[in-house]
Structures are given as structure tokens and as C-alpha cells.
Amino acid sequence: MYNDEYYYSIFGSEAKAGVIADLLKISYYYDKFVKTYIKDSGYDEKTVLPMMKNGRTFQFACVTFLCKIHYGVFTYETIAGMLNNTDELKIVIRGMGDMEKLIFANLPDEEEIFMEIFSIIGDEVLGYCFESALYKAEEEQRTLAPSDYLKSDLNYYKDVIKRLWNRYKRNSQLNNDIRMICNEPR
Predict the structure, then answer these.
(1) At the N or C end, where does the chain have fewer CB atoms within 10 A?
(2) Residue 40 region, left (φ>0) first, then alpha (ψ -120 to 50), else beta?
């Protein structure tokens, strides 16, 4: 999970040990989610399921993005103003500010909360974005594999962030779950 080459390119050099520890915890929950939770859940097999099975890094980035907003590392308004400047956007998103950890609450139902977060992000964000990209590719008579979609950082910076924020503002379950892991009252 931890490798300088990947970690610092995603999170920058100012990340604290607590963030790394929380990413390992999130990784454990995500492995469990993929192995047990999504079986027979009725997700679309062409769009949503591949995003859930292969979207680990995007899921981590989405959870981290929402936590950073809660901890005041940046605001969505700042990010929205940079969506057309990917280089500048990457620098801001990688910033960790004074954030020591991602998960500040020890909740008895923490695992279930993460299962809900992964489900919502996988279905309503990643699945939705991939379905839109797939539709466009089919119109242009191109093929688009889920793995190819997930390999492109531009998909995260151009599409996923906007959709994630939209769902976060409109999906009370996602909003509440993020608030819970960030130790904010509902």
C-alpha cells in the first residue's frame, strides 16, 4: 500500500504518519468491501461493478478529498475555480495542511460506515462517471475498458471531483458518513 513513488505523487510530501495509518485502515475496509459486500448487491455489471472492483485509488482519493474539505485544507469553491487548470489543481489537492489524520473518530460501526461510503461513491460517482464516458466512447465508435478509464488522472480531476461534490451535497447518507469519520456531529 505505501510506496514513495505512489504515495507522494498523490498526497504530497507533507502527509503525516496518521494519514498513512488511516489509508491502511481504509485499504483493509475496501478489501473487505470488494470481497464480501458487493457480491449479489445488484450493481450494474457493465459500469458500476467494474468501478467498484478496480476503483481502489479513486475511492481513496474521493474519501480523502471530502475529509480535506471538512478539515479546512481547501474549499470546494477553490477547487471549482481550478477545474480547467489541472496542474494547479493537482498541487492544491495534494496539499495536506495541518491534517494529522483522515479518521478522527473511533466509531463502533466504522466498518459499516465505510461500506456505505464505498457503495455510494462506487455507484453514484464512479459508476455514473464511467457510464457517461462509456456512452461518449460508444458514440465515437471507440472502446473504453474500465481499467483504461481509471488509469487517467484527468477523469478524476475533470469529472469525478465534480460528481463527487454533487453527490456529497445531495446524498445525506454520504454527507453524514463523512461527518462521522471526521468526528463532526450529524
Answers:
(1) C
(2) left
What is d(CA 168, CA 182) in angstroms, rounded to the nearest whole number?
A: 14
Q: What is the pLDDT along the chain (186 residues), one digit of tens a residue?
A: 455 655 565 556 667 888 888 999 999 999 999 999 987 788 888 999 999 999 999 999 999 999 999 999 999 999 999 998 989 998 898 888 888 899 987 788 999 999 999 999 999 999 999 999 999 999 999 999 999 999 998 899 989 999 999 999 999 999 999 999 998 654
Please tell me the distance from the alpha carbon of residue 144 to that of residue 154, in angstroms, as a whole number: 15
Nearest 5°: the CA angle 116, 11, 66 is 35
Residue (of 47, 26, 62) closest to 171 by Cα position: 62
- CB hemisphere CA count around 175 (13 angstroms): 9
Instruction: Take residue 145 and report the three cell numbers written for it.
Output: 475498458
CA pair distance 99, 175, nearest whole angstrom? 20
Task: List the beta strands (DSSP E) in 56-180.
Answer: none
pTM: 0.90
